[in-house]
Amino acid sequence: MRIISLLPSATEILFDLGLGDHVVGVTFECDFPDEARTKRIVSTSALPEGLTPSEIDAVVKERMASGEDLYRLDRGAFADLDPDIVITQDLCAVCAVDVSEVDDALAFLACSADVVTLDPMSLDEVIASVATVAAATGTESQAVALQAALRDRLAATASVVADAKRPSVLVLEWTDPAFTAGHWVPDLVEAAGGVSVLGKPGENSVGVEWDAIAECGADIVVVSPCGFRLDGAAELGQQCIAKGQLPPGAQVWAIDADAFMVRPGPRVVEGVEVLATIFHPDSVGKPDPSKARLLS
């Protein structure tokens, strides 16, 4: 098989299923595992580098309003790689190449590759997407083992935090403008022994006014902006603290969203484990500072 992955989460699933040698093309964001970086990049961002969150938001809105692409698909690379399978998404035009653009490219190139679309909205659907990839690649037995291992880890966390008091938790997916996290992220909070505030499970992330954030009563705020990694999340979180935009008295944490929160692949289970250390350090153990950082 020759597989092109247009999603970092799909790339991680493919490698976990033992299909790394079959992956021939990836996106510029596919950075885990390290071997993914050795694959040919077929999709890049059309956004300028070095923008602030507010600048990114403005450019994205402008490009979407005018019908411009947010990603560049390298049709020449598609032709060279001649894939049998292309894995993409139809969930969020801001997050990755839209499936319609993939279909257009394959039609233009007269390529008969099978297109597999992943659109999970919940934690259960994230884990189920492993089986979707497996069905397209003939790796069902590996998927059964991987899914079982992921569910065992979730069950182990649930057991440890079952009797602990559940803090109210606000997850900020973006900080300028403010967005609360939706989709599967509230499920991660619940699985880690918290109660999600403002963000609703299985629904899109939504913009929210800072007054509503300040008054939401969250015990813990987790700052996890997509694409900013841990250091960037910490810097943005400190800016929110300095402006007095967060609930008074709340603990504020930064987390690497790309590694543990926003990519709907196997590592979201590790995200649950990281969140559990933030919510329940006495029961689970203290957070690893390379994964989560206390800001206040």
Order of helices and strands: EHEEHEHEHEHHEEHEEHEHEHHHE
What is the CATH architecture annotation of the largest domain?
3-Layer(aba) Sandwich
Number of domains: 2
CATH C-level category of the largest domain: Alpha Beta
Mean pLDDT: 91
Shape: globular
Describe the structure.
- With 296 residues, this protein is α/β, with parallel strands linked by helices.
- The chain has two domains: 3-144, Nitrogenase molybdenum iron protein domain (Rossmann fold), CATH 3.40.50; 167-294, Nitrogenase molybdenum iron protein domain (Rossmann fold, 3-Layer(aba) Sandwich), CATH 3.40.50.1980.
- The protein has helices at residues 8-16, 53-65, 75-81, 99-108, 123-137, 140-161, 185-191, 210-214, 229-242, 257-260, 268-279, 281-284; strands at residues 3-5, 23-27, 40-45, 71-73, 85-89, 114-118, 168-175, 178-180, 195-196, 206-207, 220-223, 251-255, 292-294.
- The strands form two sheets. Strands 7, 8, 9, 10, 11, 12 and 13 form a seven-stranded mixed sheet that branches. The protein has a six-stranded mixed sheet with strand order 4-3-2-1-5-6, sandwiched between helices.
- α5 (123-137) runs antiparallel to α6 (140-161) and α6 (140-161) packs parallel to α11 (268-279).
- The longest helix is centred in the middle third of the chain and has 22 residues, at 140-161.
- The chain is globular, with a radius of gyration of 19 Å.
Give a summary of the structure in a few sentences:
With 296 residues, the protein is of the alpha/beta class. The chain has 12 helices and 13 strands. Helix content is 41%, strand content 18%.
